[in-house]
User: Fold this.
Amino acid sequence: MPEVIDARGLLCPIPVIRLARAAIDAAPGTVLTVWATDPAARLDIPAWARMRGHDVVRVEDLPDGSVAMDVRIGPPGIPAS
Assistant:
């Protein structure tokens, strides 16, 4: 089961920062799930993932109005662009 980062009620960049912190210790292939309510997270999380060599593998609108995004951690050593 993926690790869940509950960032509901938090404004960007906090959801991305929490995801980035969790990704530091995550092995390649690990899936991290982020729950967020800030509309900016829909853009910021995929942008961060692309820059870091990770993949957003699921985006789902939740009944409470938040979004759930699954991010698969990529191989180490991908530099930010």
About this structure: Helices lie at 14-24, 41-52. DSSP finds two helices and four strands in the chain. The domain at 3-72 is CATH 3.30.110.40 (Translation Initiation Factor IF3). The chain has a mean pLDDT of 94.
